[in-house]
Amino acid sequence: MADTLPIGYRFCPSDEQAISYCLAPKVKGEVVFPEFIHEFDVYEKEPWKFFDKNAEESLYVFTKLKMKKSRVERTAGSGYWRGAQSSDVKDCHNNVIGLKKHLNFKVKDGSSSNSQNTEKGSWIMHEYSVPNQEVSRIHLF
User: Which ranges carry the NAC domain (predicted)?
Assistant: First the structure.
C-alpha cells in the first residue's frame, strides 16, 4: 500500500470517511480507491500472515462475511476474531451511517500456534458496516 502513495502521504480515513467514501460506494458496486484498499478474505488465515514483519502501517481491506446460520463465522486459521465493542458511526449531521466494531484476535486453546509471542503480537481489527446488511455482506476492515 505504501508504494502507491507519494512520499509524505498516508491513507488514514476517519470513521465517517471510511464509510461514506469507501464502504458505501463499494456496497453500491462503484470502484473505490483500488490501490489503497485490498480485497481478500481476512478469515482465511491468521492476521500476522497478512503483514510484513516490520510493517507499522494499517491495512485496509474489503471482505465478505461468512455466515454460519444467523451468526458471522469469525474463525481464522489457528484462532478467531472476538468482538470487544461496537459503536455507531455518525455523519456531520449526527445521522447514523454505519457501525464500527472492535475485534481482537484470539488463538484457540490447544493450537500449535497458541504461544502469543512477540512475533505474532496482539491483533486488533476495526470492522465497518453499513446499516442495511441485506444489501451486501461486504465489510471494510
Answer: 5-141
Give Cα 51 to chain centroid, integer Å. 13
Q: Within 2-129, where are the H helices?
A: 15-17, 24-27
Strands of 8-120 (E only): list them: 38-39, 61-64, 67-68, 71-72, 75-76, 79-90, 96-107
Q: What is the CATH number of the domain that holds 10?
A: 2.170.150.80
Confidence at residue 39, expressed as pLDDT on a 0 to 100 scale: 87
Structural domain count of the chain: 1
Domain range for 20: 2-140
